[in-house]
């Protein structure tokens, strides 16, 4: 029982990392029907910029962990706007169905190479703001940072949701997400909304980066595998639902750790991917997704 | 006009070929991962190789010719290694190649050298099968000067079972060729002693959560964890143990001395032991000169070499090769190979002094006597006591 609990706790922490990134995929998909395939790289850049501010690698530390977070979020937002401006806007303008796929992937590769030149190619340690000594919860060990990841991830997702529901700007986002053309006719600047959603999604990813960096290692290659797993989560949960991201993340995280223990550590990635295939076969819009009717 | 131009071109071409004839350098390939998780090993190896070449060239080179290095980054990917092998052989026309950090890359790439009859000096990769890949062929062009996994796995088990009396061992190995071949070697040694590991687990490169693997080992009652993997994931293992509040000693292959393990594991890495052919400890004049030269040339952070073993073996591999070329009096592959198998001159390296290191049947220069145990202590590898 304690074993299961330990596995589930580790799975939850891992799953929430996936969930935050998956949430970022959804933000842009909702408003523009496009995804940033460089979401993993946004996370990586956020983590590395954060490391430069709080770590010792560039002569720092320049500030405390808490002060660094808003700066990283701002950086993430700017980076997201850049992606939208270079990679996505041209594709939307010419009504290209798939141009944004290659351009966001291309930008992701460029970001990775730039990061390799600035921060080197090695994995670095991110100083942990909390003690790494585990605390005992119901007989299972949990690190304070793991709890911080879960709380932080839920907080940022809640903040975005509340903003969307309550503020007038958020309502513009929701309106655009529901029907871009109608929102445009109602006088909403949908182009600005799309830019905003990209900024938001990259900011969320950058925040996730500094959140998970103390647990994982930080380096130019950290984004790729996390970004890919989060994409699977977004598909499992459904690309149109925030709850879907959380549930999908938890499902994948917990399946990974429990399958590793109860089946074989050599096959730990398999059940999650089988699940992905099952979801695609049975409910292609994802567990929580709405089936979109495509008008031709 | 045209005639003049032709003359000019012809003159230039003649000039070039004449100068090329005068001092045509000896081209030696250097292949290893200079990026990615294995980079500390690859970069240190390359830097050690460069130091040795600089020394030799300063003393007039070999056979009156300078050595020219052709460096290629294989990114620890077998398919890149294969491309590079073909490029080095067919386009660059190298005389020999030193390198290979990753067992998988070596196994995929060296067949091209074997076919082209060009010697390969494996200076870091340790998979036991590497030098025996072509044992069934009349001539074997694959040499090595690193402590292979057979030696290491013997030492690891001896340390864990005989010296420190651990009874229940768990093995954690990564899913690469390196990890899995090493795991096989460890299991073979255990079986020979009538023992069996209580848990044998696997993980992937870039895994960020080792809970499942560690829990299995813990539940099986392991009192020591033996590892076969590279730095970043090994650090995840050490840190994962802290997360679970489970602390047993880590003993593993020499890669536990990589800087990216030591840095990322921090205090969780203390006490970790691994076989080492070279420790950054200037206990002989030759070693002191080498360490000083390395630190001066590359200025590593805190004066600590990223992977001293790789640098030292890289350095020695060039000296072994140079001695063979000198003895052969030629850069012809079969002749160099024959000279390597019967080196008359003692080669004074930083790892050890090589006295007839190779023979027709034995292409391993390092044995258990030249390998010691290192221990991680406060961010450095020191000699284990």
Question: How would you describe what is shown here?
Answer:
The complex is a heterodimer of chains A (296) and B (385). By secondary structure, chain A is an all-alpha fold. Chain A contains 11 helices and 2 strands. The relative contact order of chain A is 0.21. Helix content of chain B is 45%, strand content 16%. In chain B, the strands form 4 sheets. A 5-stranded parallel beta sheet of chain B has the order 2-1-3-4-5, with helices on both faces. Chain B has a 4-stranded parallel beta sheet with strand order 7-6-8-9, sandwiched between helices. The radius of gyration of chain B is 22 Å and the shape is globular. The model of chain B has no long low-confidence stretch (mean pLDDT 90).
What does the secondary structure layout of this molecule look like, with pairings?
The complex is a heterodimer of chains A (296) and B (385).
Chain A: H1 2-32, H2 39-54, H3 65-93, H4 99-119, E1 135-137, E2 140-142, H5 144-166, H6 168-178, H7 180-185, H8 190-212, H9 222-237, H10 242-262, H11 270-282
Antiparallel strand pairs in A: 1-2
Helix pairs in contact in A: 1-5, 1-6, 1-8, 1-9, 1-10, 2-3, 2-4, 2-8, 2-9, 3-4, 3-8, 5-6, 5-8, 6-8, 9-10, 9-11, 10-11
Chain B: H1 2-22, E1 26-32, H2 39-58, E2 67-73, H3 78-91, E3 96-99, H4 103-116, E4 120-122, E5 142-144, H5 149-163, E6 169-174, H6 177-192, E7 199-203, H7 211-219, E8 224-228, H8 231-244, E9 250-252, H9 259-265, E10 273-276, H10 285-298, H11 308-328, H12 333-341, E11 347-348, E12 353-354, E13 372-377, E14 380-383
Parallel strand pairs in B: 1-2, 1-3, 3-4, 4-5, 6-7, 6-8, 8-9
Antiparallel strand pairs in B: 10-13, 11-12, 13-14
Helix pairs in contact in B: 2-11, 3-4, 5-6, 8-9, 11-12
Keywords (chain B): Amino-acid transport, Signal, Transport
Protein name (chain B): ABC transporter substrate-binding protein
Signal peptide (chain B): 1-22
